[in-house]
Amino acid sequence: DDKEIVAIYKSGTQQYFIDQGDGFKAAAEELGYTAKIINVELDANLAISAVSDAIASGAKGIGLTAPDQALGPAVARSADEAGVLLVATDDPIMKEDGSPVPFVGFDGVAMGTKVGERAGELLKESGWLDGARYGVLSVEVQTLSVCNDRTDAAKEQVIAAGASADSIVQVSYDGTADTSLAATGPVLTANPGVDKWVVFACNDEGVLGANNALKNAGFNPDDVIAVGLGAYEACRPWKEGIPSGFKAALYISGKDVGDAAARTLINSIETGEDLPLKTVANTTIVGPDNYADYMSCD
Amino acid sequence: MSSAILDVQGVGKSFPGVKALSNVSMKVFPGEVVAFVGENGAGKSTFLKILCGDYTLDEGKVALDGTEVSHASPLEARNAGFRLVRQEPEIVPHISAAENIFIGEYPRRASGRVDHAKMRQITTEMLERYGFVGVLDIDALGRTLSPAQQHIVEILRALKDGVKVVAFDEPTASLTTEEADRLFALIRQLRKEGLGIIYVSHRLHEVMEISDRVVVLKDGVQTGDLRIEETTEQDIVNLMVGRELAHGYSRDEVSTPEVVLEVENLSSRWHRDISFQIRAGEIVGFAGLVGAGRTELAKVLFGEFEKSGGTVKICGEVKTIRSPADAIAANIGFAPENRKAEGLILVRSVIENASMAVYSALARMGVLRTSAMIEKVSPFIQKLEIKTPSLEQEVGKLSGGNQQKVVLARWLAAAPRLLILDEPTRAVDVGAKAEIYRLIDDLSKQGLAIMMISSEMPELLSMSDRIIVMRDGQISEPIEKQDATEEAIVNLALGTKAA
Amino acid sequence: MPTEDKKLSITENATLQIASPKSSALKRFTNFVGAENLSLIIALIIMVALIATQTEFFFSARNLMNIGQNMAVVGLIAVGMTLVIVSAGLDISVGSIAGCASVVCALTVTQMGTVTGGVFAGMGIGIILGLINATIISILRVNPVVATLATFSAFRGVAFLIAPDGRPVGVLDPNLAWLGSGRLFQTESFPGLPVAFLLLVLVAVVAHFVMTSTVFGRSIYSMGGNPVAARLAGINLTRMRYAIYAVSGALSGLAGVLVTARTSSGQPASGTQGLELEAITAVFLGGALMAGGKGTIVGSMLAVLLLATLSNGMNLLGIPTFYQLVAKGLLLVLAVAIGQWRLARSEKQQAKLAAAGK
Amino acid sequence: MPTEDKKLSITENATLQIASPKSSALKRFTNFVGAENLSLIIALIIMVALIATQTEFFFSARNLMNIGQNMAVVGLIAVGMTLVIVSAGLDISVGSIAGCASVVCALTVTQMGTVTGGVFAGMGIGIILGLINATIISILRVNPVVATLATFSAFRGVAFLIAPDGRPVGVLDPNLAWLGSGRLFQTESFPGLPVAFLLLVLVAVVAHFVMTSTVFGRSIYSMGGNPVAARLAGINLTRMRYAIYAVSGALSGLAGVLVTARTSSGQPASGTQGLELEAITAVFLGGALMAGGKGTIVGSMLAVLLLATLSNGMNLLGIPTFYQLVAKGLLLVLAVAIGQWRLARSEKQQAKLAAAGK
Ligand SMILES: Nc1ncnc2c1ncn2[C@@H]1O[C@H](COP(=O)(O)OP(=O)(O)OP(=O)(O)O)[C@@H](O)[C@H]1O
Ligand SMILES: Nc1ncnc2c1ncn2[C@@H]1O[C@H](COP(=O)(O)OP(=O)(O)OP(=O)(O)O)[C@@H](O)[C@H]1O
Ligand SMILES: [Mg+2]
Ligand SMILES: [Mg+2]
Question: Most CB within 10 Å of its CB: which of C163, C193, C346, D114?
């Protein structure tokens, strides 16, 4: 099986990357290749090991979502040495000389920007900007650079939309819904003057946790504008027709990104052409009414 | 006489590298005390551990009061009525002495709750009934108990309801003579109550005094089963050792004028105003009852416990000793009485345990060759006849007496200027005792000063050049060898005036 | 063999002294929380004072309820962990067990529509996994650390395998949600008591009773303090281990159920975010010993409260993660150090008394 | 007090029997790896056989080098952890120390441009943090678990505070990269030996010598087995602890340097998280006792190799994460269980021999 490609994901236990893996595998098999998926659980050191393992296993091409962009030079080097094709998925990375590694997907800054834009629009529509006592919850994994990219970008957009900078409150969690819930509670307590909240986070879990905290604190869904990232948690209340803080969410088709990554790699392996520098997979902001056109919710 | 309450037939047991018991048979009748003797490592404790369900026998049969209990679990053995007072007390450190006695079978309220009050009450009653009043604080944590106190806990554990046969594995080893007498009274009381009693000891005069019959083991083989009135200590020794032994030990005074240890007005949490000297080549015996503070005195001198006043001079110069490390640097050695808790690294090998105190001495720039260790300590291991399948054997798997010998080997090998021995021959057999006395004697001839804490009168009387008696943290005037008598010592220890 | 050195052993002597039953009201209180744990209370008071001076919201009824609610998950696990550690064992797999239970509970509720069923399913799987731990330790004779490190990994895998495609399972059942975020005795003036917190209190009280006044509980102390003594006294160590790890499993399972209830979705990864370290921290902070045989439910619960209050306070004050990490470390050291210092001091006094002729 | 029960203590006895110096070649080998560790080798062989039948790439020189390279980071930490655990301590802060060292090394290299400087800075900070651990344990008398759980959190925070805005620090210095991914003795036919691996081998050999044939090493076994007896034999426990935790810190620091070298960036957390559990797993898998006093460098290194081979093999075979987690758990249990079973058996045989009169 010398016709093999490998995908390495920074967080392979998350639904989004599971989807991406499925897309990657499916496309590869369709084109007569075998595909392997390696998960490195946000561990930079494991990522390096995984790349070398992939190379050792005779892979012709590697798709990598790095747990940290600083890894770029190290992986690019070992891939070049071994003459193996490398594409970065989701998070762009650079080579030593600062030139970008060919990229497939939709990077964190762009994600944050889209989320922020939508949150901004909803904020304007809500009319809270004229005199309402509103706040903005930015739920962040402050120890993870790829997460900060998203929330930072989202904050910019919300401010651009007219929110005041000091209305923004940071909440720190570890990526799971439970810690987001635990951390948001006290923040709400500390801001008793605020009776309307805008919410965004690094992922849907973060937003979900914050929503539950708001519910516990007795906020009613109309007083919450929560924009999810991933949409897999957001879509549930929509599906059930239950009112919730989720007003919109950025849907990223992991399947599409994985599919695109596999096709780009295989194409270059077969034809020997250089990899295209940027292949952007499509992503959309979805809401209660239109999510079903893009995704199945389970 | 009625039928045997305990009937053991052809029991055998082996451990890796050791055949501990082969074809041992014995009977115990109600109201009979059977002594069980043999050299260190002969298999006595193994035999008893089989009876109490700790070890499983390889071959043979055990019947208790008619019912077979050959493969009983510890619980079954207990319930069947066999109780063992172990040579090495097993104490639970962070619960009270009273609770230690009741683990496994607590008194309960109707609600099923453990009845702590009842537990303390029963304990107090037992302490009175068996004559241990005031020796044991029943609320003290297990870890703070002295070896003597630990033994009392073991005894009370054994004597709880339903006991038919009780075995004492070297009960007097950690007791003073006074305590031992109390124990004998207890044993006689139990005999009257019709219990079967097995009594293991290396102190043959005790055996002659207390038992009706004596069973002798040698290397796991039964070499005798005699009625006590038909035998003598010498016969027993011959059966145990297989050769004649010089009885007792006498040494000639070798002390020189040079003063090695000089203690002036030392006081501490336990002691008030203690002053004495030990000269090179001199052996000074320390007598006293449990709680008198001898071990504490040793530990204060060795820097383990804090002294609150006074000075300690070694070879004329004042030493400030704040830790055992300081003490060893000042050329002091200390073989503790409590070998399991304070003496040995049970999970490590014989050779390591024996050489611990000479590591630095043997090392070249911190590098320590095993060969060097063996060379240094194996002579002592041989002279002390330490019974072990190999030098690599875990010390925890040696017999009690052999463990004690390992502690001694460590300090005999280190040969410091001042050597403090706390109960040096505790649990050691007669043959080995003589050898240990000889080695101590040799060391003193080499000019060591030796401080020997002991609760064994014969040992104190035969080995010491002078004897200091301790009572309530204070010491008596030293008694010179010539006028040292058992009576004089006991009187000083108890604080009663000599007649 | 004795696993601490002189200093410690002596200080413990002192504890004993203090705890000895000359009962004045204070003495009885000291007795109940245990002298060592007084230092946790002191640390708690200092910390609360610090936080309260910075924000008036700390003492708001709602915030206090919040703390109660957030300590439930770790608290439940810490109760089970106390039994395990006192028995001289360790259970690193608790977080993974919680993960499995969270998923199983979510699936049961969504597919069978029964919340009670979900709760019992969650605890059930917890018990099963706990029994697996006990089997590996007792029958295969694997050291508890390795055994539960192994199942820490294996059970986590299982959690993802149970969940369809390893995805979180959403549950929007309001009754389940009530378990996680509901309140009892609510009035317009009083925000009510969180159900999750009451659940923890209930469990802790029962556990305290078991540890102090039942044969099972006392036997845990014996086997932890000296397995040989325990075995020779007829305590069946194997059976004890099965019971202990089953309890730990059941409570981890219950914690997993709470996670599902709080987050309205079964999170396979929920447990894997260091819940085990959090619980282990609490138990040792509460006065347990690595060597076993020592530790109390009261101590562990105080420690959980201390940790929950700390993170709540820091979130109230909006302290960034990095500083939160440092602060947590300092608190842990401080809390224990205070205790040691107090014990050392009272031991000195004891010595003086003794020297002055007892 | 004894922290294992009879069964264990007796089975262990068998080791000594086998290890007792009747030397044939096999005996000497057994003697070196220790009977318990033979089971690790057996497990390794079984596993390698399984993997090799599935993929021809496993035995490719390149892949073997790979395994070597990938085990370096955990390996270095496991060496230090062996000293700590044998001394009856525990060091949960190793991962956080590595994180600090990784950042410090990166900053030194980028700002002063000296790679050697970076390496020493990394190890230096490691030593300092190790000494802090020792101080908390010895002077403040905090139990090692709590102490290092505390610093586990605190040092992590420090790592982020050192790193500008808590973000990873990129370093492109080729000499540093050489340390992480460079090879020695490379020929066109032979891919060469990874520098990182050689570093680990060097450290392990020295550590093995220290543990087996120096006063320091022997004293670690003594103090771990019975601190009281060790102190009464003149061992200064406090000084020992400072030395032991400093070594553990230094090696964690070196591991952090390697992470920087491999990832071409100073990582405050990513890459060093969870290292503590990996290392602890290895040490106990290598035959150490929770109670202290037992454990060998050889055993720990075999365990590290076993774990590294497993994850490499599973990556080669493209086994999905969830199954990888389960497989890892099974391997751990299997490896130890085999050992226990073999020891129980050989102990029976030994006894039979003795019964038959040797
Ligand atoms: N658990 C064990 N493992 C291996 N060998 C053992 C074990 N227990 C005892 N032995 C060996 O069995 C033999 C008999 O030991 P035992 O303790 O019965 O002797 P003993 O007669 O009680 O001696 P002592 O008078 O010194 O107590 C000794 O050689 C001892 O080394
Ligand atoms: N508070 C205590 N904590 C721990 N051990 C104690 C304490 N008090 C006494 N001991 C121990 O009790 C034992 C007997 O006490 P002490 O040393 O006072 O009597 P002794 O003169 O040594 O008698 P013996 O040596 O016959 O036991 C010693 O081993 C001592 O270490
Ligand atoms: Mg014996
Ligand atoms: Mg004494």
Answer: C163
